[in-house]
Amino acid sequence: MPAPPTPDILALRGRVVTFRDNPFTTDPVAALHHEEDGLIIIRDGRIAQMGTYADTLRHLPADTQVTHYPDCVISAGFVDTHVHYPQLPMIAAYGEQLLEWLERYTFPTESRFRDPAYARDIARRFLAGLLRCGTTTAAVFCTVHPQSVEAFFSESERLNTLMIAGKVLMDRNAPPDLRDTAQRGYDESLALMTRWHGRGRQMYAVTPRFAPTSSEEQLKLAGALLARDQTVFMQTHLAENLDEVAWVRSLFPARRSYLDVYAHAGLVRPRAIMGHAIHVDEPDLMTCHDSGCALAHCPTSNLFLGSGSFRLFDALDPRRPVRVGLGTDIGAGTSLSQLQSLNEAYKVAQGTGRRLHPAQAFWLATAGGARALHLDHRIGTIAPGMEADLCILDPEATPLQALRAQSCDSISDLLFSLMMLGDDRSIRATYVAGRRVHERA
Ligand SMILES: [Zn+2]
Q1: Separation of 75 CA from ligand 1 center, angstroms?
Q2: For residue 298, how far is its CA from the centre of ligand 1 (angstroms)?
Q3: How far apart, in whole angstroms, are the C-alpha atoms of residue 376 and residue 362?
Q4: Is 202:237 a contact under the CB 8 Å cutoff?
Q5: Band of the pLDDT at 400, cuts 50, 70, 90?
Q6: Residue 275 CA to ligand 1 centre (angstroms)
Q7: Could you tell me the CA-to-CA distances from 399 to 1, 408, 410, 416 in Å, in that order?
Q8: How far is CA 126 from CA 136, 266, 287, 307, in A?
Q9: In this structure, are residues 130 and 165 in contact, taking their beta carbons and an 8 Å threshold?
Q10: Helix (H, G, I), strand (E, B) or coil at 202
Q11: How far, in Å, from the CA of 1 to the mean position of ligand 1?
Q12: Residue 154 host element (H or E)
């Protein structure tokens, strides 16, 4: 008989940060768990042990090599809860707000994804870009073309990244070559969902772009798709821009609010992710709390398009907390780096009179994002049993950061300097299911 394969063991040593609690409901410093000199042992893609280097070393089989990152911080990989991979080529498009920006830049760019070779090329660049920024899971919009989804999942499967993605549903108010019909959208989504949902680490999201580009019939059929499987995701946009909100009111006069349009179609439920949710009211937030759906806070995008300020602390009010994750929203967002999202999230919070503690910020980008997606039993924290998706952060990646790091007197301060000054250069390496998939040159 052949010998059983040796388990794949990996050991990483460095400053480990993770979360044992929610820093929005307890003292942020107490919620943050920090090992000054930590060791993480990974077996077959999962975390087997994590603790101080001195205590944990005894669990390591003799002659296992330890990869040491002496001045780096080891964190769970970042979670991006709202992003459009096809919009990568049109990042930094000048001058418009949401509805004009869609017409002028987004739709022409998305038309190119009818070509599977183009879709494969951009999917490859996009996923490499995410990993370069330490992001290991994302909820990703493709285009209306099924081949755009095929290209994305094929590349994600090759990398073994845990990704959520889906075909955009759009049967009105869009150029003819980007429109499906309610029935075709349903059929194509069902075929993709059947093929990809739960295959390895890939998961499907039913993806109506937003209420104005779907008929009532299409939204109803999106709800019917979701009713087939409670584990499937739903992603869309909600109340990003005031003109958009007014448009939705005119298209769906019978509904109480924009969110109610989705609720009426059965789209508001656990594993539903609403991008933006800037212009929502208290009853909407209560609906989100009760339903278990999530909001994706996309600060670089909201600032770029002048959409408004998401009220993060209102959404997370401990009396009726809503699940909130952080999104880059490329191509309206201006960086794939969640460190850059946190930089802008801090400023947006300041503008609403609130202070985003670095522990709260890193929680949003990791454990909070995982919780928003109902994936916190698999990813988002560093603990035995969790899938080993990790990023290695270098707080001294640039001369300025090295200078700033000299005055850091606590792990919170070090994390704050990372989120305010960091970007892809701060990512020393990224691990996916225990395998190194990116290393900084
Ligand atoms: Zn978006």
Answers
A1: 26
A2: 8
A3: 15
A4: no
A5: very high
A6: 6
A7: 57, 15, 20, 17
A8: 12, 31, 34, 25
A9: no
A10: strand
A11: 54
A12: helix 146-159
Closest CA to 163 of 433, 391, 392, 367: 433
Going from the Cα of 283 to the center of ligand 1, the distance in angstroms, rounded, reads 23
CA of 138 to the centre of ligand 1 (A): 12
Q: Tokens for 323? A: 């699940």
Share of the chain above pLDDT 70, in %: 98
Length of the chain: 441
Both tokens of residue 387? 């899938």
Amino acid at position 176, single letter: P
Cα 165 to averaged position of ligand 1 atoms, centre (Å): 13
Query: Are 166 and 207 in contact, with CB atoms under 8 Å apart?
Result: yes
Whole-angstrom distance, CA of residue 141 vs CA of residue 149: 9
Helices (H), 167-241: 182-196, 216-227
Q: How distant is the alpha carbon of residue 435 from its chain centre?
A: 20
Indicate the pairing of strand 32-43 with strand 9-19: antiparallel
d(CA 308, CA 299): 9
Long-range contacts, 28-34 (Cβ 8 Å, 24+): 28/357, 28/358, 28/359, 28/360, 28/412, 29/359, 29/412, 31/359, 31/363, 32/359, 32/362, 32/363, 32/411, 32/412, 34/411
User: What is the 412 CA–ligand 1 centroid distance (Å)?
Assistant: 31
| Strand ranges for 245-343 from DSSP E | 272-276, 294-297, 323-326
Distance 99 CA to ligand 1 centre (A): 12
What's the chain's average pLDDT? Answer: 96
**Helix pair angle (358-365, 338-351), 10° resolution:** 130
Output the six-digit token pair for 425.
């250069």
Q: How far is the CA of 77 from the centre of ligand 1 (A)?
A: 21
Radius of gyration of the chain (CA): 21
Q: pLDDT tens digits for 373-388?
A: 999 999 999 999 999 9
Q: What is the pTM of this model?
A: 0.97
pLDDT digits (tens, 9 = 90+) for 123-159: 999 999 999 999 999 999 999 999 999 999 999 999 9
Q: Hey, what are 235's tokens? A: 């992603």
